[in-house]
Design brief:
The chain is mainly alpha-helical and 233 residues long. The protein has one domain (24-228). The chain is built from nine helices and four strands. Helix 1 (28-63) runs antiparallel to helix 4. The longest helix has 36 residues, at 28-63.
Length: 233
């Protein structure tokens, strides 16, 4: 696991607004090699996992009706709206929260956008989440250029507006969001937007990204997946 105390010196949330000028970070050579790695690695993963993912999709459809894969809108590089793919781990009408959640759970959902012991999660979905494979379809997003393997996690436009200053938005949107990154390689449950730590971690990556940090993120993700940080948004 990567020590999250490294990021205490990052800019605080709510800094003085600045003109939103988005400039790419990282050297040209770094960006070229990173994109090459993204494409080759994602292509290999997609080929190797194609049949296992098809089998999982079949089990999803057998347990509950609806598409086994769904998309969510997020903010990509340059402020572009992108649609990231995920394996469905909940019932098809999970958006109808009043149907499935108790009043206490509804309150938690409204505040945190997640629920403890969520009744909408299917049995196959529990397996998907335990194995952290719900985001495997996002390698297709990497192949089409919307995501990188390593980068800040893609967030919603509301999260961007609520938790980042104008200057921080420009920094965050200067890079492609990633399937995994520094936030996922740390204790994701503690590093929340509400605590301010997630913003610091994501911005620390943007300001200092290089091959060595990418490697730490790549290897650190596996520790977070199988350790206590394995659950997260």
């Amino acid at each position: 696991m990567i020590d999250k105390t490294e990021y205490s010196g990052a800019a605080a949330v709510g800094a003085k607004p600045a003109t939103l000028v988005i400039k790419p970070s990282g050297t040209l050579a770094y960006r070229f090699v990173k994109r090459l790695f993204d494409f080759v690695f994602s292509l290999c993963v997609s080929v190797v996992l194609f049949i296992p993912i098809v089998v999982v999709c079949a089990f999803i459809c057998l347990e509950s009706s609806g598409s086994p894969v769904y998309s969510q809108e997020r903010v990509g590089k340059g402020g572009k709206t992108i649609k990231i793919l995920k394996l469905r781990s909940m019932v098809a009408d999970a958006g109808n929260v009043q149907k499935y959640l108790s009043p206490e759970q509804l309150h938690q959902w409204e505040v945190e956008r997640k629920v403890d012991d969520d009744p909408r999660i299917t049995k196959v979905g529990q397996f998907i989440r335990k194995c952290s494979i719900d985001e495997m379809p996002q390698f297709l997003n990497v192949l089409n250029g919307d995501l990188s393997v390593i980068g800040p996690r893609p967030i919603t436009r509301d999260e961007l507006e609520q938790h980042f200053s104008d200057e921080e938005k420009a920094e965050l949107l200067s890079v492609q969001p990633g399937i995994t990154g520094l936030w996922q390689a740390t204790d994701r449950n503690a590093a929340t937007f509400e605590s301010g730590l997630r913003q610091k971690i994501e911005l620390h990556y943007v300001r200092n990204r290089c091959f060595s940090i990418d490697w730490k993120c790549f290897t650190g993700t596996f520790g977070a997946m199988f350790g206590k940080g394995a659950t997260g948004k």
